[in-house]
Amino acid sequence: MPRDRGQHETAGARKGSGQTNEPAVVIGQLHAMVREAGMQLIDPTADNVDNCGGRLDEVANALRKLLAGLPNAGQEHNVALAEPLASLRAEIGRVAMLLDTAAAFHMGWMHRAACMVSGYTADGTPATPETARRVSLEI
């Protein structure tokens, strides 16, 4: 249950910091969440791929909320957040690429398994899987 542990750690980090709304701290927490989601892809099982996608959705929602709440006034404040936001964006891109690759791998195997069940064509290539259901009874 890595996802549950990560949610409790992140929630604990927020409580430990006094529920701060400091953007730099929140960006750091989001960066840790993205890193944790990426670690799940070391073992890209179907569950880990699904959990990673859910975790990235949580990060995206939190990031939208953070960016909507940023003040437009303080230019020096925005400049100070540029580097952490760029780093977060790069990490999200890296994990998204891993997630897409893992998902494509599983989709490829699903297609391959379906082709193996469908048999082969006369020229030796896997046949296109049939969409209709079939029942074969042997009496």
Q: Could you explain the architecture of this structure?
A:
- The protein has 139 residues and is an all-alpha fold.
- It has one domain (2-118).
- Helices cover 72% and strands 0% of the residues.
- It contains 4 helices and no strands.
- α1 runs antiparallel to α2 (23-39), α2 runs parallel beside α4 and α3 packs antiparallel against α4 (75-118).
- The protein is elongated, with a radius of gyration of 22 Å.
Number of strands: 0
N- to C-terminal distance: 47 Å
Shape category: elongated
Summarize model confidence as the mean pLDDT: 78
Key traits:
mainly alpha, 139 residues, disordered N terminus
Summarize the structure.
With 139 residues, this protein is mostly helical.
Itemize the secondary structure elements and their pairings.
Layout: H1 2-16, H2 23-39, H3 46-69, H4 75-118
Helix pairs in contact: 1-2, 2-3, 2-4, 3-4
